[in-house]
Design brief:
This protein is an all-alpha fold. Helix content is about 90%, strand content about 0%.
Amino acid sequence: WKSFENEVVVQNNKIDALSKSLGRRRKLNNTAVDDNDHIQLVESLENEIIAVKARLDICNDEKTKLISELKKTRDAMSKCQEDQAKSEEMLALIHSEQKLTETTEES
C-alpha cells in the first residue's frame, strides 16, 4: 500500500519537474539551439510527461483495487468475528445446559 502511495508521489513529482522543464524549454526560443533540436527536446519532454501520467493512472487504478480488496477483507473479518461470537455464545449456552442437566440428575 505504502509503495503505491510512494509511487504516486514520485510520479507526481516527475510530472511537476517535467512540466517546469518543458515551460523553461519553451521560453528558450531565443537561444542558439537549433530549431530542430529544440522541437525534438520539447516533443521528448511532452512524451515523457504523457508516459509518467499513464503510469500514475495505473498506480491510481491499482490503489483503487487495493482499497476495494481491503474493504472486502475487512467485511469478511467482521463477519467471521460475528460468527465466532455467536458460536462462543452457543457453546456457553450448551455448557450451561449441561451443568444444569448434571445438577438435575444428581438431585
